[in-house]
Amino acid sequence: MIMMLDGMIRLVAWTQNDSYKSLEEVLSIPEEKWKEKLQEYGVTNYVLISTCNRFEIYYSSPADLNGIFKEESALKMSGSQALEHLFRVTAGLESMSVGEHEILHQVKEAFDKATSEKHAHDPLAFIFRRALSSGKLVRKDTDISKGKVSIPALSMDILQKKFGVSGRRVAVVGTGKMASDILKYIQKLGPKQIIVLGRSDDKTAAFAKAFKVRWKNISSIGNVINENDVVVTATSSKDLLVKRGMISGKEQRKVFLDISNPRNVEAPEESDFYDLIDLASLKPILERNRSNKVKEISHAKEIVDLQTESIISKLSKLEMENLIASLYKRAEELKEHEISKLKRALASGVDFEDALEAMSSALVKKLLASQTEVLRNVHGTRVTGDIREAIEGAYFGKPTKTSSKKSRGRRDNQNQQDQTPQLSRTP
Fold first, then answer.
1. 81 is a domain residue
2. pLDDT digits over 202-224, tens only?
3. Residues 43, 136: one domain?
4. β-strands 10-15, 54-59 pairing
């Protein structure tokens, strides 16, 4: 089956632009469940992108299976729309913090994981490789990523300005990329001490060793949060890790920085002795940054448009080449089948001329059967001039307008070349 552009890339997505509850519910579903759902419908070529602010399923399938995802809030696209969305994502244009570097890293990680698990193949893999290259080009040729654009950088800026970190006891919950990035900022601000919490002892120990800090298992979170002044949560946990009842500290008000989605820390009430900075606290800054980068965003969009036009053109050409190859393959199969029948007929004593006539007649009928059926199906509909010309050009050798223009162009160029020496010749 020839896969058209719509089948090469399809998308089902939930992002921070949807309702928070919808995204939170989707993120709470284990990735394995999504994989099982795709495999149940025969999808073997797919990439899952899961971050704090988005969950996206890109897949290749001749059949549009977006309907199997019943969630009403899901963004559903196919073909050029899905492709353009992916390129906007890698460019940082769809991010909460426009131009951030992290999303490019996250898309690459997701693609690498899908490749290693052997469920990312061409043409989807080709599209992803080009999208990643396009994201790098946007950051190279524009200043869209200039300044503080990452969520860790912006959130630490708020924390430092409002509460300060210097001389404070700090706990970091999480051992992933976001936790790593935020820990680098914390260490530069001169805290009194730092402790890291994680689920896996081996991973947490290695993480802590890299930063030369202490560590504990996340099971100790209840004690740790009350032993520290500032607590940062940056995990992929689907559940609340810190609830209001776990926090004491009448002696000194505590500060929580939660950059997880779904959130890890329960929101405080007026009577509670802690403050919370979460992703919602960043929105005014993110909106200001976006408005300050209107020119860079426009430039980035131009690059993305050029990149997507280029790849769509290449994929469309690939579609046609595959179709042509398929037609030749089918013709060869029919030929071989009829030759086998001819040989059997001759072996059984059938006259050569009669056997040859039977073979040629059968071959013509089989080669034209599907095309004839298509033409009969369009009976009664308006057959455009271009379609008629294509049919006549294919079967009767009549030149189409396009081929005639090309021929005239070649002749005009040749005539011009022939006349040029004569015009320059001295009389």
1. yes
2. 999 999 999 999 999 999 999 99
3. yes
4. antiparallel
> DSSP letters along 127-164, please?
HHHHHHHHHHHHHHHSSTT-SS-SHHHHHHHHHHHHT-
pLDDT at 417 over 80: no
CB half-sphere exposure, 312, CA atoms < 13 A: 16
Question: What pLDDT shows up at residue 399?
Answer: 62
Q: Tell me the pTM.
A: 0.70
pLDDT tens per residue, range 138-197 = 999 999 998 878 888 888 888 988 888 999 999 999 998 889 989 999 999 999 999 999
Q: Is the same domain home to 84 and 56?
A: yes
Q: Does residue 342 sit within a domain?
A: no
Please give the helix or strand (H or E) that residue 345 lies within, else none.
helix 294-347
Please report, rounded to a whole number, the percentage of residues in the chain having pLDDT higher than 70.
85
Burial per residue of 316-351, b for 16 or more beta-carbon CB atoms within 10 angstroms, e otherwise: eebbeeeeeeeeeeeeeebeeebeeebeebeeeeee
> How many domains does the chain contain in total?
3
- Asked whether residue 107 falls in the same domain as residue 156, the answer is no
Residue 420 has pLDDT above 60, yes or no: no
In-domain check, residue 409: no
Contact criterion met (CB below 8 Å) for 148 and 282: no
Residue 418's DSSP bridge partners are none
- 225 with 205, same domain? yes
Using alpha carbons, select from 267, 225, 275, 276 the residue that is nearest to residue 246. Answer: 225
Given a cut of 50, whether residue 382 has pLDDT beyond it is yes
CATH number reported for the structural domain that contains residue 283 in this entry? 3.40.50.720
Q: How far apart are CA 262 and CA 264, in angstroms?
A: 7
Domain carrying residue 106: 5-144+293-316
Are residues 305 and 209 part of one domain?
no
Quick one: 301 and 273 in the same domain?
Answer: no
Express each pLDDT in 3-58 by its tens digit. 678 889 999 998 877 655 577 778 778 889 999 999 999 999 999 998 877 899 99
Examine the domain organization and report whether 120 and 162 are in the same domain. Answer: no
Strand order in the sheet with 46-50: 46-50, 54-59, 10-15, 75-78
For 202, which DSSP code? H
The answer to whether residues 232 and 172 touch, using CB atoms and an 8 Å cutoff, is yes
Q: Which amino acid is at 252?
A: Q
